[in-house]
Amino acid sequence: MKEFELKYGCNPNQKPAKIYMKDGSELPVKILNGRPGFINFLDALNSWQLAKELKAATGLPSAASFKHVSPAGAAVGLPLDEMMRKIYFVEPDAELSPIACAYIRARGADRLSSFGDWAALSDTCDASVAKYLKVEVSDGIIAPAYTQEALEILKTKKKGNYNIVQIDPDYSAASQECKDVFGVTFEQGHNDFEINEALLSNVVSENKELTAQAKIDLTVALITLKYTQSNSVCYVKNGQAIGVGAGQQSRIHCTRLAGNKADNWYLRQSPKVLGLQFLPSLGRPERDNAIDIYISDECQDVLAEGRWQNIFYVKPEEFTREERKAWIATQSGVSIGSDAFFPFGDNIERAYKSGVRYVAQPGGSVRDDLVIQTANEYGMVMVFTGMRLFHH
Hints:
By secondary structure, this protein is an alpha/beta fold. It folds into 3 domains: 3-172, 3-Layer(aba) Sandwich (Cytidine Deaminase, domain 2); 195-267 and 328-384, 3-Layer(aba) Sandwich (Cytidine Deaminase, domain 2), CATH 3.40.140.20; 276-318, no CATH class. It contains 13 helices and 15 strands. The chain has helices at residues 38-58, 82-87, 98-108, 127-134, 148-154, 212-226, 251-267, 271-274, 284-294, 300-303, 321-328, 346-353, 368-377, and strands spanning 3-5, 18-20, 29-33, 62-67, 70-76, 117-121, 138-143, 163-167, 176-181, 184-189, 232-237, 240-246, 334-338, 356-361, 381-384. The strands form 4 sheets. A 6-stranded mixed β-sheet has the order 3-8-7-6-4-5. A 5-stranded mixed β-sheet has the order 12-11-13-14-15, with helices on both faces. Helix 12 (346-353) links the parallel strand 13 (334-338) and strand 14. Helix 1 (38-58) runs antiparallel to helix 6 (212-226) and helix 4 runs parallel beside helix 5 (148-154). The two termini are 28 Å apart.
């Protein structure tokens, strides 16, 4: 297949639309089901690069959950404990492959943002991934291969129209890439910069204790940032992104946005949230929305008389701001990455509130000494990578 006609471009009025190779060669993808659109393919090709690079850097099966050309989450395939299974709606006795664990973790970072996502897998999509995806709201998936059982399951989604794309795992992009904006062609070298453990060698803080898990987590953060619309900041714990702040003009807003998402991820594990008694008829998206409201200052939107009865069969106690703050304060061992330098110590102050202990950033600010000093005040380990990771 040398070209594929899309339904339309970013919007319905942008026609005609297609994907093709400029040199006239075959596309590196096969459409096994459905009819992916313009944004679908942007998500597919960016998410695949993220998952592939994460697998190469860590040696672990990896996955990403994309929405509007940025990751809602990314993760490596570490096992899910009982807590993770519960907050990600996984049956206690469900058999999960490592690649299924990777995708479930990636989607679990920010389940609201992953609603209607594009999934990307570094490894073959098997039945355990397909069974999980079958009951989630998702637009499509890209993987290097699929088992026959997985294909049969996925082809039942969206009335048989679920988008399934297979990519050649050996395909590599040309060294130069182009895109047109307002009739003007931009050309640049493809960003083939390799992110690996060696990038974490320049520890600039007083605390030099960079654990093996922290190295994995910082690698997850940096590779996620490489494919996140800039400015961007990413919080990671135990091999999975738990908060991604993308496309903000101010870095502190990235840090706050990602930090708030990391806080929400952790609040889902609190006894009050785990004890919520939902009506059996309530679907997963409705439960996710209810939890998101319950752990916010707008909690009365689900607790008010006449409303809670439509969500819970026992009215929950309010999760007060003070209680939420106290629970978040127990979070620890979190890593954070930034696609460009932190210009002020306020980013570190905010990160600390979400349990951050490990920091990776390029460095290069005129205030680097003050940022390092702030990290030292909190006993953090800070690494300067020397590499900016802007993506647009």
